[in-house]
Amino acid sequence: MRITRIESRIIGYDVAEAWLPEGPPDGLYSTWYSYSLDAFHTDEGVVGCTMQNTNVPDGDKMADVLHSVYWPELRGEDPTRIEHLWDKLRRVNRHAYNLSDGVHGAIDVALWDIVGKVAGQPIARLLGMARDKVPAYRTASSVRPTPETVYNEATRVKQAGFHGFKIQFWDGLEVDIPRFRAAREAVGPDFPLMQDAAGMYSFTQALEAGRELGRLGYYWFEEPIPDRNIFQLQRLTHDLDVPILAGETLRVHELAEQMRLGCFDIARGDVHMKQGITGMRKAIGMADLLGFDLEVHGIGQPLLEAANLHISASMTNGRWCETFHPVYAKGLKGSPLAVDPQGYKHVPMGPGLGVELDWDWIDDNTRRVLTSPAS
Known about the structure:
The longest helix has 18 residues, at 102-119. The chain is globular. Helix 9 (252-261) packs parallel to helix 10. The chain has helices at residues 59-74, 82-94, 102-119, 123-126, 147-159, 173-187, 203-215, 230-239, 252-261, 276-290, 302-313, 359-364, and strands at 3-13, 33-42, 47-51, 133-139, 165-167, 193-196, 220-222, 244-246, 266-269, 293-296, 321-323, 344-346, 366-371. It contains twelve helices and 13 strands. The mean pLDDT is 92. The protein has two domains: 3-123 and 356-371, 2-Layer Sandwich (Enolase-like, domain 1); 128-346, Enolase-like C-terminal domain (TIM Barrel, Alpha-Beta Barrel). The protein has 375 residues and is α/β, with parallel strands linked by helices.
């Protein structure tokens, strides 16, 4: 089997409803949520699909990178030789300093989709399936909320059956700490809460915020400072009672070193930034052998979320499945990523990623098509 071409569709649609109640943050254009849907065609007719995680509105640019930088390396290759291709693309990335490992990760997802379809099995089963459903926590939709907004959203999340609620803001401790308290007041003392600062606090802010989160019994404090501030992360992990979760933006090899150095209590990863399903398997295995839990980070593209769900189902050293507003799951038939009334996501059990693309919706929302030259 050989890869013969890649076809990419740039998908764009309105996601304004995801930001409640204030609307989209400054600088984000909700009516042009843009990412690429990439189909990898083979000479045997099997097609592997993936999506690229992008920030508004750069989806077309990432597709250009896929076709100009990575297609020459993939042309004519056997897609079932995943380990060979993973190492080959890692060597390409070594000299592509202006690129992250995200494109590589998207490619790897498509290859696993092909392998699963060839085998007639869901990816989770090929990975050694440990469970068929994963408890979901909901990440907040609100931006720059008042404490009352946080209280109300936390209440709705708990009532909806989710297993936890993650808030995420970094607007200064004088406004953030009342929000921490409002979320705890809304859900009671035992419901899992998390705070994600996206690396935006200074060390002293993170120290003060972490002490308050510890007093409030938060389940984790996510990315309090930038992931590569190794020394300061070590200090926070040592000094705070609330567990530090970090590593989302690290490359898979960097994650290994920071686990060794004790930079956090819980590792973070997803199939995008950890170089696909193959890279995530390596990260999860490293974490497991070193005694770390690794929590899978959510992504706003449904095929990557499906890949994350397969990975989550194959591991025993991670508890959760991060969940966003349903608007980000459009483009699939039958709502396969929906959360059930008990707060679980169920692994799609069809071959490969196990989901069916809604081509009518995709055609209606395609802005541009790129096709690689046939090999």
